[in-house]
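Q: How do we represent a protein-ligand complex in a form that can be generated token by token?
A: Start from the inputs.
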Amino acid sequence: MKIIDEVKGAMTIAISGHIRPDGDCVGSVMGLYLYLKKALPAAEIDVYLDKPADIFRCISHIEDIKSGFYSEKEYDVFVALDTTDDRLGDVETIYRKARKKINIDHHVSNRGCGDVNIVEPDRSSTAELLYELMDAEMIDEEIAKAIYIGIIHDTGVLRYSNTSPRTLQIAAELIKFGFDFSTIVEETFFEKTYRQTQIMGRSVLESVRFMEGRCIVSMVSRRMMEFYCVTPKDLDGIVNQLQSVKGVDCAIFMYETGTLEYKVSMRSNGKVDVSAIAVKFGGGGHVRAAGCTMNGTYHDNINNLSIEIAEQLENE
Ligand code: 5GP
Ligand code: MN
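Then emit the structure tokens for the protein with manganese (II) ion bound:
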């Protein structure tokens, strides 16, 4: 199947991804946008997404993204990438009105929310899946760069277990276009601002291990975010840092989003299915990386999550 066959004849197309977009989400959305603009020059194409982090400025035409502005248009086609409809945020109403809905995703928790569903949980990233749906001869350096960014962000730079031989083949095809992949990896994935580094340090310092060191948890309050002048976008990578502690099977990181409301990120080494736990609390994700939003005190939330983790580890 090729994406172009699914959008043939469409004069208006909308593209979007999930709220609080990560690298895979931004890379996929922009990769598809650049591709369709080239393939269908006469079509009107709009991209809706929460404002991406500054690190993604290297992606061509990123300034075309409409954030916080939503039209009443009824699109011929709406492509939702790396997400389910309930995580589209305010764009969900536009999605509902679209004449044809296409859902492209790799989350195991996604049952498909479109008229056409291309959901492949074995794919490292939505960007990888998207590459397969493109005609290779239409891909250019800018499209390749966007897709490459998507892949490296969801695979921890081709190192997590979701990286397959095919992922590496695709990465090889992409870097042939000649963009400076080394700088992209450094500047979008590894480099942290001083403040980001400080809040990461503080989170690690204040983390607590439990279940004989098999679990680790840390939290950032709104007050801490104010103190360090950071926003949620600056907290990426903290949960991965916690997960890399020797002996840890499951890491939990949460930050306060409102009164008695926390955004929870979980990571595991595969012994715990964190997607199953996130789904129980209204979220989703992958076996080794998932998230949800939880209401209650920090300690209640840890308690509720640790019951689920303990149950899985006992049945191991
Ligand atoms: P992160 O912890 O990096 O925010 O997210 C890890 C994975 O879980 C990502 O694939 C992300 O899309 C997914 N995820 C995070 N939060 C939620 C959520 O609230 N709902 C759903 N369905 N997926 C989530
Ligand atoms: Mn993804």
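The pocket of manganese (II) ion (ligand 2) is lined by residues 24, 82, 106, 125-126, 154 (CB under 6 Å). The first helix runs from residue 3 to 7.
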